[in-house]
Amino acid sequence: MYDGRTNYIGGQWCAASNGATFPSLNPADTEQMIGIFARSGAEDVRRAVEAAEQAYPQWSRVPKPARAALLLRMGRLLEQNKEGLARLMVLEMGKVLEEARGDVQEAIDMAYYMAGFGRMPDGYVVPSERPDIYCAARRVPVGVVGVITPWNFPIAIPSWKIFPALLAGNTVVFKPSEETPGLACRFVELLIEAGLPDGVLNLVTGYGSEAGMALVEAKGVRVISFTGSTAVGKQIASRCGEQMKRVSCELGGKNAILVLEDADLELGCKGAVWGAFATSGQRCTAASRILVQRSIKPRFLQAFLEHVARLRVGSGLDPNVEVGPVINRHQLERIHEYVQIGKAEGAEVVMGGTVLTEGAYAKGCYYAPTVLDRVTPKMRIAQEEIFGPVTAIMEVDDLADALTTANATAYGLSLSVYTGDVRKAFRAIEQLEAGLVYVNLPTSGAEIQLPFGGVKQTGNGSREAGWVAMDYCTEWKSVYINYSEAGELVRAQIDTPVLSDGDSLSGGGEGRRP
Ligand code: UN1
Question: How far apart, in whole angstroms, are the C-alpha atoms of residue 452 and residue 448?
Fold first, then answer.
């Protein structure tokens, strides 16, 4: 069990400089403590950034294939420790064991995928308009990267951010969510076992408003990568803007599944159940709106509710359970409050709508899987991210209405359409405003070899994973080399031969621009 010495700075485990700590609790039983963790502040962050700055010159010069080898070993260690990590994840943040294994698997995939890039091209050579000039562009690291991660994918999301940053030659300061510091410590322990050199990755545990904001403000940090709420993302992005610091934000979503009348209804139901209630609705890709075509609405709703009624809620360690607790009491209250707001706005609770308090539920943070019917586009529950096991049923007339309604929120992460008509599918792919579009699949379930991220208020244009994963933590450097023996200055755009106006290509005086 962790005892407060959970910062890892310059290759040493240490406590917060002022000795402050905080506990991490099991959301299935809030009397059970996972450990005590360092509550870091600006001074701890300063030390971590200094260690990362010191390690940078050497790490950035390690050959890329050797940096990739660290990730390869990390992938193997994650694989060997998959079950232990998954079980700790169930205890620390509540998702069910099967999904926790998936979370770790996403990190394993990312480690191997990124390791492969150690020997892949990281730039390109282009022709010059001038004789005897060599032109090339390549990616270079930016320096110290600050990584601020959420609790809902406590192993996967750090891996999306940290593996590309390390591969590219950056050094890192990692501030995980205060809800999952134990998993962050395990992640770092495995990186150390994989051969992490001192100072290349530094961990500071603590709260977002303290350690997180200190990292955003820290002078030596060149890039911030943040996943979390849009409200906090805006605050971080504007602070980074002030400092001309690069920033990558993956923020909220109000994702929708569109079920059209020609859809495979059973498949649509299964997708909607998974999309809405996996991870107790605590995914940024969760389907918090189900848009159903009017003609099939009664049939769909009945089948959907039958599925939802069968969902078992409980501890994620119980193999029969599909829906675990939500992250904490505060979030439990917030979810319930949203359901009250929905009711007041005229929505009808057709399933759930209650905090679960009986028997074994009493010690944990459990909310009944909830379905709100008769939701209309302007209601707050159709617009705001709830981040819990609550979904809204909305009726739409046809494909055009479904597309307009789907797009009518501030967010644009994941949208899905169920249809048997390829023409409608392609129309939807074209018109849905989202970073991820699914056809006959739910809104969750992204694979790591594709870019992940959203449009509108979901992000600021950056993407994680895929081969663009390195974009956020690299700069492009363009290089020009003159190897001519003529000893003459040839100016770009001025002294260069052009192919218009009858210019000769022989070079020299006549061929040059006037
Ligand atoms: C998130 O909730 O922030 O597609 C990430 C999915 C997962 C990742 C979700 N692979 O739902």
Answer: 8
Total number of residues shown for the chain:
514
- Best of 283, 386, 413, 441 for a ligand 1 pocket test (most atoms within 8 Å of beta carbon): 283
Give the sign of the dihedral formed by CA 338, CA 341, CA 347, CA 349.
Answer: positive
Q: Which of 49, 330, 51, 45 is nearest to 213 (CA)?
A: 45
Instruction: Name the superfamily (CATH) of residues 255-444.
Output: Aldehyde Dehydrogenase; Chain A, domain 2 (3.40.309.10)
Distance 250 CA to ligand 1 centre (A): 11
Domain ranges across the chain: 2-251+464-474, 255-444, 486-514
Q: Does the C-beta of 445 come closer than 6 Å to ligand 1? A: yes
Cα→Cα distances 32→279, 295, 329, 363, Å: 20, 49, 14, 9
CATH topology (fold) of 2-251+464-474: Aldehyde Dehydrogenase; Chain A, domain 1 (3.40.605)
**Annotation says 250 is catalytic:** yes
Instruction: Tell me what percent of the residues of the chain surpass a pLDDT of 70.
Output: 97
Which of 332, 280, 232 shows the shortest CA–CA distance to 25?
332
- Burial level of 320, CB count in 10 A (0-12/13-18/19+)? exposed
User: Residues 53, 210, 250, 385: which is the catalytic one?
Assistant: 250
Give the tokens for residue 43: 């001074």
Strands 287-293 and 436-439: unpaired
Banded pLDDT at 511 (limits 50, 70, 90): very low
292-310 residue pLDDT tens = 999 999 999 999 999 999 9
Per residue in 452-495, pLDDT (tens digit) is: 999 999 999 999 999 999 999 999 999 999 999 999 999 999 99
Q: How far is CA 291 from CA 46, 324, 399, in A?
A: 48, 25, 10
- Please list the residues that pair with 355 across neighbouring strands: 367
Instruction: Assess contact for 109 and 446: CB atoms under 8 A.
Output: no
Q: Residue 454: name the closest of 444, 464, 445 by CA.
A: 464
- Cβ–Cβ contacts within 10 Å for residue 488, how many? 7
Task: Tell me how far the alpha carbon of residue 152 lies from the centroid of ligand 1, in angstroms.
Answer: 8
pTM of the full structure: 0.96
**Residue 184, pLDDT above cutoff 70:** yes
Helix or strand or coil: residue 139?
Answer: strand
Predicted pLDDT at 504: 60
Residue 317 DSSP symbol = T
Is 284 one of the catalytic residues? yes
Handedness of CA 27, 327, 183, 49 (dihedral sign): negative
